[in-house]
Amino acid sequence: MLTNTSSQMQQHVTQCINCGQCNLVCPTHIAGIFNPLGVLRDLQMHDPETAIANQPIYNCLTCNRCMTFCPASKNGVGMNIAMLIRYLRAYAIENQLKSPEKNEFPGSCTTLAKNSEKSDSIPTVDSLQYFKNTPKLKIAQKGEIAYFIGNLAGLEDLNKDLGLNLSEIPQSVVGILNRVNISPVVLNMKDSGHDDLWAGNIATFRKIAQTNVDLYKKAGVTTVIVEGAEAYRTWKFDYPKAVKSFGLKVYHLSEYLLNENLVKKLVFDNSFTATYAFQDSSRLGRLGGNHYEEPRSILGKIPGNTLIELESAQTSAFDYAGGLYIVENSTTEEMWKQRLHEVQDTGVQYFITTSPKAIVQYSKFDSDIPIKDWAVFLSRFLK
């Protein structure tokens, strides 16, 4: 269960050898707004209260890029800055402590629910809205295989000025599943709770997780398919720790298609081609079971399409991740712009991601290269 934050923090702090490698590769340290080694030293020399008072822990992206290069971390075992920061945030909430530089409200890339003792106050997401005028797309209310959408409508609503069309994502996913003869269960549910968990709102997260799992079990669901990276990480790794007798199988869409040998049922249109770069999400990669090859493998089956890898890719990829309350200024804007420059330098036509939040984040900046969701991009090549 998600408990005992003090002992959980200590498990990671004792692993640190103070080499400073984390600072060298941390995007927000380079931007001058966060110091991972400073957090560790405060925890080694003082206590969590001191670390929270001294360090802007909400400026950490919890992307764990630092752990790719940390000698005390290997394949997610040992040192883990992202988890340490999550525990610190939970400790801050438990003890009503304030951290410097934390924004009063969460940013535009989150649908963070208000922390409440009443689970019915956490909004239910209208997932069925995406299929009211799409008679060709087949969904179900009961069955063994479900597709979890999350709160795309909330992200869209918070970012109206960007003109996003996130409804493309669930419609594309269902279209892909229909092509392999699956009519997935789609229900109106709570958001995944990812943002509440990474903000430290453990009680709220547990309520969300329990509600969602109960809804699926009542509908007869045994397998959950997720395409959004943040929701995938949450269902796959965090729900089983929060919900007793979880008992559901969870797959990323790309993982499921490959594992079940269903890609052969997809017929591709080879009349046009494209070049693309891929944005690895830490929630699907470093913190999500290292699913780097699955989405690439399926896109690689599209005739004539070419993937051009970014310099910062896979285990070392720069990622928006869980920047829930991160300070937004010219310095952090430059962080995102540099990533877009890296994409533009490749000369690709599209920038592909499995993270809806990455779509929001990068859509804030002018770019000649559109950022597209993985399933949306894939579906455009299907006959």
Description:
The protein folds into 3 domains: 5-94, no CATH class; 119-259, Rossmann fold (3-Layer(aba) Sandwich); 268-379, Rossmann fold (3-Layer(aba) Sandwich), CATH 3.40.50. The protein has 17 helices and 11 strands. It starts with a helix and ends with a helix. It is globular, with a radius of gyration of 20 Å. By secondary structure, the chain is an alpha/beta fold. The strands form 4 sheets. Strands 9-8-10-11 form a 4-stranded parallel sheet. The chain has a 3-stranded parallel sheet with strand order 4-6-7. The chain has helices spanning 5-13, 21-25, 27-30, 36-45, 48-54, 65-69, 81-94, 152-158, 168-179, 194-199, 202-218, 229-242, 253-259, 293-299, 330-346, 356-362, 374-379, and strands spanning 73-74, 77-78, 124-125, 145-148, 189-190, 223-226, 249-252, 275-279, 306-307, 350-353, 371-373. Helix content is 40%, strand content 9%. One of its GO terms (molecular function) is CoB--CoM heterodisulfide reductase activity. InterPro entries: 4Fe4S_Fe-S-bd, 4Fe4S_Fe_S_CS, Cys_rich_dom, HdrC_iron-sulfur_subunit, Helical_ferredxn. This is Dihydromethanophenazine:CoB--CoM heterodisulfide reductase subunit D. Its EC number is 1.8.98.1.
Structural descriptors:
single chain; 383 residues; alpha/beta; Rossmann fold; 4-stranded parallel beta sheet; 3-stranded parallel beta sheet; 17 helices; 11 strands; globular
Q: Could you tell me the number of beta strands? A: 11
Strand order of the largest sheet: 9-8-10-11
Name the CATH architecture of the largest domain: 3-Layer(aba) Sandwich
Which runs of at least 5 residues are low in confidence (pLDDT < 50)? Answer: none
Total domains: 3
**Rg estimate, integer Å:** 20 Å
**CATH fold name of the largest domain:** Rossmann fold
Query: Beta fraction of the residues?
Result: 5-15%
The top-level CATH class of the largest domain is Alpha Beta
Biggest sheet architecture? 4 strands, parallel
- Ends: how far apart? 45 Å
Count of discrete alpha- or pi-helical segments spanning 4 or more residues: 17
What string gives the helices and strands in order?
Answer: HHHHHHEEHEEHHEHHEHEHEHEHEHEH
Question: What is the structural class?
Answer: alpha/beta
Give the proportion of residues in helices.
40-55%
Mean pLDDT: 92
Overall, the morphology is globular
